[in-house]
Amino acid sequence: MSLEKIIFEKNNDLSKIIDKKKVPEHVAIIMDGNGRWATKKGLPRSYGHNKGVNVLKEIIKASKKLGCRVLTVYAFSTENWSRPKKEVDFLLDLFSKVLKREIEEIHQELIKIKFIGDLTPLTENLKEIICSSESLTKHNKNFLLNICVNYGGRQEIVKVAKELALKSSLGEIKPSEVNEELFNSELLTQGSKDPELLIRTSGEKRISNFLLWQLAYSEIYISDVLWPDFNEFEFLKAIIDYQSRNRRFGGIESLPNESFEDSRYSS
Ligand code: FPP
Q: Would 255 be classed as within a structural domain?
């Protein structure tokens, strides 16, 4: 039965369908479609970004309520610098304003906030706000919100490679000791489990340089809804779809009566 049909049969009450024991611990989101949403309405793109902030707040609340522990969102990629300067300035200013306005509530909700990416080219003002927000919330244990700003997955992998090469040249590690565990320990997301689920809005079917290492085995859910129209209902639909997946991690399902070889087909 299709997801739409199941939802219809339950009168749109998704809480009746969700399996509380199979909630993903870490969800990553590519919040896409702000510009198109605004343009469709004949509004400047900035309206889409402003509306996108309200949606992000709704999704943080929804994922926390559901029992997720980590949410990682792509707010500004290394490629986003190529946008018109006016839009880049608007976005960076929006991050400062939203953080200043919301940080007390974020803290009261016991959310730890972490910025992921190369923050060096950001304005001193934004860097200070980021630093004070991270330091205020650093002991919060309920929920981790990772905000990726000036983030690129390839850049992150290169950074880890450089750090390991440096450690090796200083004799702190041997090249033969480099393994996935060591690599993980140098990632910007170190300490968090890899996302079980990646959601991308606006119908685009790309990873766009987001968490390239961490998404190796994540389930991908593409929503056709533009980010400013995304909401708790659409988020829960993504979770239900995720719960219907069969995560095999490259293996096969173990079926007790199925043998590897069948004499009818052996040579
Ligand atoms: C993608 O839509 C969205 C962005 C590049 C910005 C996302 C930022 C927010 C939702 C604000 C988050 C706020 C904080 C404080 C983290 P797009 O502009 O690429 O849309 P388009 O593909 O339709 O052009």
A: no
Q: Tens of pLDDT along 118-173?
A: 999 999 999 999 999 999 999 999 999 999 999 999 999 999 999 999 999 999 99
Query: Which atom, in ligand 1's list, is nearest to the CA of 87?
Result: 18
State if residue 117 touches ligand 1 by the CB under 6 angstroms criterion: no
Residue 48 lies in a domain: yes
Between CA 49 and CA 64, with CA 225 as vertex, the angle to 5 degrees is: 75
34 is catalytic: no
- Using the mean position of ligand 1's atoms as its centre, give its distance from the Cα of residue 204 in Å: 14
Catalytic residue flag (residue 231): no
CATH code (residue 146): 3.40.1180.10
Q: Is 157 a domain residue? A: no
Residue 54 lies in a domain: yes
Phi, psi (degrees; rounded to nearest 5) at 148? -85, 115
Find the 156 Cα to ligand 1 centroid distance in Å: 21
Three-class DSSP category at 235: helix
pLDDT band at 29 (very low <50, low <70, confident <90, very high): very high
Among 208, 260, 188, 240, which Cα is nearest to 74's? 208
Q: Is the CB of 35 under 6 A from ligand 1?
A: yes
Range of the domain at 230: 23-152+194-245
